């Protein structure tokens, strides 16, 4: 059983004799690997989790992660998956000619739609649309779907909850140094402006991460600090904050929200977020807030934060292994031939 997980960036307009390049390629040999919950905290746990779990259980003999990138690479990750980067779909097509088609293909995001089409009739395809283009709101291109909002549910879809490594991310008793933390890169859909306007002129203290260029943000008259990638331990940021916030609206079901909940932080989420608002169980994991009442809700959650039970709820309802098993069972109901465990 070969499983491929894909989270494609935009393709590159580069030409090469791809067929000849893959003919010379040598697959890196397997190495000692870390199991799913042995992984350190870092990007990609929620994306790669299905593939790593299938390796752990002996359901997959091969598991790969695909992306488009400036450099074509083929490397082993610490979890045992093979990371393969391509220039574009033509590159992928020649790779498939050399190595064959996967049995299970799980694609995250819209850039993988051409690959889903390429694999029609050749692999069982799962599509996780993530942030959907406004002009394309329907489920299409796969045998089944993991979706970010109830409005997209149909007979071949189920709600998607990003898996969180609850062994690596957990509460730590320590002094709280700030009121809130926001984990999101700076671009239009993340709405740092909404958050900063909400806390401007108040005594609320917070931290934004990762921020490559603080000059992009209007931090005047706020008690908000920033750090860039690799400048700070993200787990320390989480466990030294009182609550988490997610003011983004042009974003869908970011894993960072769920990681904050796993760390035991009540979270305040913009009710206009494009997807994933079910991370908020009011009075338990946090609260949804209207954009014009964001500060008011933050202050209320801060005042009552001891009454919330985010970590406990996540462990009970969204355990990572149980989530993956639920997804695999769903794929099987939709027609995937699930292998037995070794």
Q: Quick gist of this model?
A:
With 342 residues, the protein is of the alpha/beta class. 26% of the residues lie in helices and 20% in strands.
Structural class: alpha/beta
The whole-number mean of residue pLDDT values reads 96
Strand order of the largest sheet: 3-4-2-1-5-6-7-8
* Helical stretch tally: 10
Number of strands: 14
Regions with little confidence, pLDDT below 50 for 5+ residues: none
Terminal Cα span:
12 Å
Shape: globular
CATH architecture of the largest domain: 3-Layer(aba) Sandwich
Features:
eight-stranded mixed beta sheet; 2 domains; globular; Rossmann fold; 26% helix; alpha/beta; single chain; six-stranded parallel beta sheet; 342 residues; 20% strand; 14 strands
Task: Tell me about this structure.
This protein has ten helices and 14 strands. With 342 residues, it is α/β, with parallel strands linked by helices. It folds into two domains: 2-164 and 319-333, 3-Layer(aba) Sandwich (Rossmann fold); 178-317, Rossmann fold (3-Layer(aba) Sandwich). The chain has an eight-stranded mixed beta sheet. Strands 11-10-9-12-13-14 form a six-stranded parallel beta sheet, sandwiched between helices. Strand 9 (178-183), helix 5 (192-199) and strand 10 form a beta-alpha-beta unit. The longest helix is centred in the C-terminal third of the chain and has 14 residues, at 320-333. It starts with a strand and ends in a 9-residue tail after the last helix.
Write the topology of this structure.
Layout: E1 2-6, H1 18-23, H2 45-56, E2 62-68, E3 73-76, E4 82-86, H3 89-99, E5 104-108, H4 113-118, E6 124-128, E7 144-147, E8 157-159, E9 178-183, H5 192-199, E10 205-209, E11 223-226, H6 234-239, E12 241-246, H7 255-262, E13 267-270, E14 286-289, H8 294-303, H9 310-317, H10 320-333
């Amino acid at each position: 059983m070969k499983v491929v997980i894909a989270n494609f960036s935009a393709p590159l307009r580069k030409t090469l004799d791809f067929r000849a390049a893959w003919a010379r390629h040598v697959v890196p040999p397997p190495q000692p690997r870390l199991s799913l919950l042995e992984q350190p905290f870092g990007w990609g746990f929620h994306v790669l989790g299905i593939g790593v779990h299938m390796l752990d259980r002996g359901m997959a003999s091969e598991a790969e992660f695909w992306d488009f990138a400036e450099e074509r690479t083929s490397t082993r990750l610490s979890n045992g998956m093979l990371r393969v980067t391509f220039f574009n779909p033509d590159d992928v097509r020649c790779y498939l000619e050399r190595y064959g088609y996967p049995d299970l293909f799980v694609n995250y995001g819209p850039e993988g739609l051409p690959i889903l089409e390429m694999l029609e009739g050749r692999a069982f395809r799962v599509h996780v649309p993530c942030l959907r283009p406004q002009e394309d709101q329907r489920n299409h291109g796969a045998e089944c779907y993991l979706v970010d909002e109830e409005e997209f549910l149909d007979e071949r879809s189920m709600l998607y909850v990003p898996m969180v490594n609850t062994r690596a991310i957990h509460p730590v008793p320590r002094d709280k140094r700030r009121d809130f933390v926001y984990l999101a890169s700076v671009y239009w859909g993340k709405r740092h402006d909404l958050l900063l306007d909400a806390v401007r002129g108040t005594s609320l203290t917070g931290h934004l991460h990762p921020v490559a260029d603080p000059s992009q943000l209007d931090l005047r008259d706020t008690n908000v600090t920033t750090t860039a990638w690799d400048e700070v331990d993200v787990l320390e940021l989480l466990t030294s904050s009182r609550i988490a916030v997610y003011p983004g609206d042009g974003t869908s079901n970011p894993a960072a929200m769920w990681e904050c909940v796993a760390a035991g932080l009540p979270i305040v989420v913009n009710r206009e977020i494009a997807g994933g608002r079910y991370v908020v169980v009011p009075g338990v994991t946090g609260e949804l807030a209207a954009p014009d009442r964001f500060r008011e809700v933050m202050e209320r959650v801060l005042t009552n934060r001891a009454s919330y039970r985010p970590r406990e709820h996540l462990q009970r309802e969204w355990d990572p292994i149980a989530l993956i098993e639920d997804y695999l069972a769903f794929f099987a109901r939709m027609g995937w031939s699930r292998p037995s465990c070794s």
